[in-house]
Design brief:
The structure holds 2 protein chains of 2 kinds.
Chain A (H helix, E strand, L loop, with lengths): L1 H7 L2 H26 L7 H19 L2 H25 L4 H23 L18 H4 L4 H4 L5 H19 L1 H11 L1 H6 L4 H28 L10 H11 L4 H23 L7 H4 L1 H11 L20
Helix pairs in contact in A: 2-8, 2-9, 2-11, 2-12, 2-13, 3-4, 3-5, 3-11, 3-12, 4-11, 8-9, 8-13, 9-11, 12-13, 12-15, 13-15
Chain B lengths: L2 H9 L6 H25 L4 H14 L1 H26 L7 H18 L6 H28 L3 H20 L24 E5 L2 E4 L1 H18 L1 H11 L1 H6 L4 H28 L10 H11 L4 H25 L5 H26 L1
Antiparallel strand pairs in B: 1-2
Helix pairs in contact in B: 2-3, 2-14, 3-4, 3-13, 4-8, 4-11, 4-12, 4-13, 5-6, 5-7, 5-11, 5-12, 6-7, 6-11, 8-9, 8-13, 12-13, 12-14
Classes of the chains: A mainly alpha, B mainly alpha.
């Protein structure tokens, strides 16, 4: 017991929480836009996987993580258009679309990895994003220590809840998104182009999900392996529901799930004589329990999951 | 409800149109195979050669056909499980976890129980079904009582189920004196009956079970009040309440049965093919069940055809990889493109109907 306490009562554990929460936070905060606009995005998992893969491959090829970051943003943009095309334009079932996208992402990334990188004995590593040194933050006590190893993606992730809060509370764009997600018909009659707003919202979600994936490779391990997101996209999606579609709530949710991930990794290193599987299930179980013990249905946008059919 | 309303209400429950259940899946498959042919071409391999290798690997020889059939069995079970749930308006994305848990319980029973006459295997299958069903019941209960999205809960529970199997074969179910994460071999008395043998490949009784369940499901869907209740819950929960149907109860029962069917994918594989439980012993079959269900037009008999096709694809992909170097994972691209084409085709068809 003392061992466990010692393992989590230190700065490096807090650093681990920040690192484990970053991919979830990026994907989940971006997803708020999509969900609030009324488009379910369970394709986060696949989008993260594609982001992880493409940022790895591009950084590996160009030896430059910032080029990888920029191209990943463009790819995320494309992923958003892809999802919006099926769900908004074609009005196809939003859940099945996402399931198809997730399988496609798994198939494409695994196949392309073998074609581009091949089967190697040693995991090839790419150039990772450098640690970003911001004097104002890094000189602060405690916070400076926690953020001392952070890349630009971590800073973006932790800024996003604030930016998103401002957008939703104080801008007409944020109001439009909410209107489109709650009552598309009324929004339409107020002159808001429902489909355009939904496209933009889903594209934002695509970009941040791809960045969430990038934070696993160029912002983390520096290598890629099949299905490396391992359900993080689904956990991010759960965090959005758990956080009641609000930036602050989602931020707390991703911190909770990120901490449980950091905690289980810590437990694995303690050398407890138990199969590691018992620890790896912790984040999934915590997510499930969090969903069960928080009331949530009434908070979802009213038009969530429904395509808008304009009646003239 | 006026008489005319009632008639239009009932018409919704007639059998699905041929376009939706046959033509869209075929379009989906063709699109999937065509786009992947382009990817194969970009790899510098002739797609016709690649697909020839695939077909040969799948059904070219009797042995290849037998191993395709061995993949057909679990794919049918998970496809039927997803179809059943979907018909009641519930997404069961948890077949993966349900089959892992089912296989775990079946293995444990098969190892512990010592009885004659195939009784251990029967007992093992039934125990697996009960626990697999319970595993699916949890998300159903959470959906109807707490309004929690079942897509998310079933997916999260997959990870839990897979990890429970990993934990078990590394601890209490681990073979004594071994370091490999696997259960002891299951005694011959607990194996499933074999109905055909070909050079070391044994076709077990599971294939009969697949057909029995598929025909039963077909009959229940379209010839019984149960089937009517299940389908009406999916189409309109409010209207079905009007008709005196307890939608919550229907959803919970359907999900239990769905989980039980999914568990058979895992338990028959262990008791009929692998004879021991290993970590990650059958990756992806649960998720493939979704593709099978959609390709099969959500019709139990269509599911059998789709499961055979996907089994052939999985089996043939090995030969294709050896002969042409195209990675096996390409079959996931085919599947995904098929799914996306099917739902777009049916969305466009609905749009067309609405406009005319």
């Amino acid at each position: 017991m003392i061992d466990i306490l010692l393992a989590i009562l230190n700065i490096s554990f807090l650093q681990a929480i920040v690192n484990m929460s970053t991919p979830l936070l990026l994907a989940a905060i971006g997803d708020i836009y999509s969900e609030r606009a009324g488009v379910l995005n369970i394709g986060l998992e696949g989008m993260m996987l594609v982001g992880a893969f493409s940022s790895f491959v591009i950084s590996y090829h160009f030896n430059n993580p910032y080029i990888a970051l920029i191209i990943t943003i463009i790819i995320g943009f494309g992923l958003g258009i892809f999802h919006a095309f099926f769900t908004v334009t074609l009005k196809a079932d939003q859940v099945i679309t996402a399931l198809g996208e997730n399988i496609l992402a798994l198939g494409l990334t695994s196949t392309l990895y073998r074609i581009i990188i091949g089967v190697t004995e040693i995991q090839p590593e790419c150039q990772g994003l450098p640690v970003l040194y911001i004097p104002a933050i890094n000189r602060m006590p405690v916070v400076g220590d926690i953020m001392s190893g952070s890349t630009i993606l971590v800073y973006i992730a932790f800024l996003m809840p604030i930016i998103t809060y401002v957008i939703f509370e104080y801008t007409s764009f944020g109001l439009s998104i909410k209107a489109v997600g709650e009552n598309p018909k009324a929004a339409d009659s107020m002159g808001i182009n429902v489909n355009v707003i939904r496209y933009i919202a889903v594209i934002i979600s695509g970009i941040f999900a791809a960045l969430g994936g990038a934070s696993l490779t160029i912002g983390g391990l520096k290598y890629f392996f099949d299905n490396m997101t391992a359900g993080r996209g689904f956990i991010a999606f759960a965090a959005v529901i758990f956080g009641r579609y609000t930036p602050l709530g989602v931020f707390m949710g991703t911190l909770l799930f990120g901490s449980s991930d950091a905690f289980q990794l810590r437990l694995q290193t303690l050398g407890i004589q138990l199969p590691y599987h018992i620890f790896t299930s912790i984040p999934y179980i915590v997510t499930l329990l969090a969903m069960i013990f928080s009331r949530q249905t009434s908070f979802s946008p009213k038009a969530l999951g429904k395509a808008y059919v304009r009646s003239s | 409800m006026s008489n005319r309303n009632l008639i239009s209400f009932l018409r919704v429950f007639e059998k699905d149109s041929v376009i939706e259940s046959v033509i869209t899946p075929i379009i989906g498959l063709v699109v999937g195979l065509l786009i992947v042919a382009i990817i194969i071409l970009l790899e510098g391999v002739n797609p016709i050669t690649a697909y020839q290798e695939l077909i040969f690997g799948a059904i070219g020889t009797k042995i290849n056909l037998f191993s395709t059939l061995l993949k057909f069995i679990p794919l049918s079970f998970t496809g039927l499980a997803v179809t059943l749930a979907y018909r009641a308006g519930v997404f069961n994305i948890g077949a993966e976890g349900q089959l892992y848990i089912g296989a775990l319980v079946a293995t444990w029973v098969a190892i512990k129980v010592n009885l004659p006459f195939y009784l251990p295997s029967l007992l093992a299958l039934i125990s697996g079904m009960i626990v697999g069903g319970f595993f699916a019941f949890i998300p159903a209960y959470l959906k109807v009582e707490k309004g929690i999205n079942e897509v998310l809960t079933t997916i999260l529970m997959n990870y839990v189920g897979i990890n429970i199997v990993g934990f078990s074969v590394n601890s209490f179910l681990m073979e004594k004196g071994q370091t490999a994460p696997q259960s002891p071999l299951i005694e011959r008395s607990a194996h499933l009956p074999i109905i055909a043998k070909l050079e070391g490949i044994h076709l077990h009784i599971g294939i009969v079970l697949v057909f029995v369940i598929a025909f039963l499901m077909y009959d229940i869907f379209w010839n019984t009040t149960w089937g009517f209740e299940i389908r009406s819950v999916s189409i309109n929960i409010e209207a079905s309440k009007y008709g005196g149907i307890n939608a919550k109860k229907v959803i919970m029962i359907v999900m239990f049965v769905s989980g039980a069917i999914a568990s058979l994918a895992g338990s028959t594989e262990v008791l009929g093919v692998q004879y021991r439980l290993m970590e990650n012993f059958m990756t992806g079959y649960g998720y493939d069940g979704i593709t099978v269900a959609l390709l099969g037009g959500l019709n139990p008999l269509g599911v059998l055809a789709a499961a055979f096709f996907l089994g052939a694809l999985r089996n043939g992909a090995y030969s294709m990889q050896i002969a042409t170097g195209i990675p096996i994972s390409i079959i996931y691209v085919v599947q995904a493109l098929a799914i996306l084409s099917i739902i777009s085709a049916s969305a466009l068809y609905k749009k067309f109907l609405a406009e005319n």
